[in-house]
Amino acid sequence: MKKLFIIKAGTTFKNTVSNYGDFEDWVIEKLDNENLDIKIIDVQAKEALPPLEDCAGVIITGSHSMVTDEEPWSVELEKWIPSLVENEIALLGICYGHQLMAKALGGVSSYHKDGMEIGTVEIELEEKAKEDSLFNNLPKNFKAHTIHSQTALTLPKNAIRLAFNKHDSNHAFRVGKNAWGVQFHPEYSKNVMNSYIKEVSKAKVLPTEKLLKETEETPNANLILKRFGELVAKEVNND
Predict the structure, then answer these.
(1) Mean pLDDT calculated for residue range 25-53
(2) Is 185 annotated in the active site?
(3) What is the pLDDT of residues 87-99, one digit of tens each?
(4) Which CATH number fits the domain that encloses residue 128?
(5) Where is the Glutamine amidotransferase domain (predicted)?
């Protein structure tokens, strides 16, 4: 039976892990789908990428690494991404995964000229999002959690831009039928976002109190993961 593979591209802060779990835990929670056979592949621990024929879908998580550092595990993952798209395997890249997808498919990912985006922010959808299977019926404007210094500066030529905001012109895109990148974090809860703000503020000067006051739950952003899980489950059932 085909599986949904979560490609774990990194781990979060120790304090965050101890209180709330790690990237893969949040993803699984927001997928909210007991019908999926899920397997986690830790690429930083040099676990092998799965054969394409075993993949009903793939999610690439966030990471504290930088795409431009081109670490060996990241380069290997980058080379694998086009084969997923070519074979129309459902793919969702989150934050680091979004940036790596853009790079792998011919776009450009690097540091954002305005620095870090962090906190609960407003996301705005493009008109084309109304026809998209993950974004349709969502409000034109909704809240999502963000934490990133790098971004997809230029999308691949064949990409459809789906979402943006004042900070980032490429917050979500789709390539082909079912490969998506999202810069924001659909897997985060308010507690996780607060934990990130507190941890980042230990090393970087932030308007911490203001950011913490502005965090809230983001059910519309979370819904994107649930819909992706439903899409993958449908693929498994049709197999």
Answers:
(1) 96
(2) yes
(3) 999 999 999 999 9
(4) 3.40.50.880
(5) 19-194
Tell me whether residue 176 is exposed, middle or buried, using C-beta atoms within 10 angstroms of its C-beta: 0 to 12, 13 to 18, 19 or more: middle
What gap in Å lies between CA 77 and CA 48, rounded to an integer? Answer: 10
Count of all residues that appear for the chain in the document = 239
Write the pLDDT tens digit of every residue in 165-224. Answer: 999 999 999 999 999 999 999 999 999 999 999 999 999 999 999 999 999 999 999 999
**What is the domain count for the chain?**
1
What percentage of the chain reaches a pLDDT higher than 90? 97
3-state SS, residue 51: coil
Catalytically annotated residue among 145, 148, 167, 185: 185
The residue from 24, 117, 187, 235 that is catalytic is 187
Which range marks the domain in which residue 101 is found? Answer: 3-238
d(CA 230, CA 93): 16
Q: What are the E-state strand segments in the chain?
A: 3-8, 38-42, 55-60, 90-94, 108-111, 117-125, 141-148, 150-154, 159-164, 172-175, 179-182
CA distance 119 to 140: 19
Helix axes 23-31, 219-238, angle to 10 degrees: 70
Q: Is 98 a residue of the active site?
A: no
Which pTM was predicted? 0.97
Asked if 165 and 122 count as a contact pair (C-beta separation under 8 A), the reply is yes
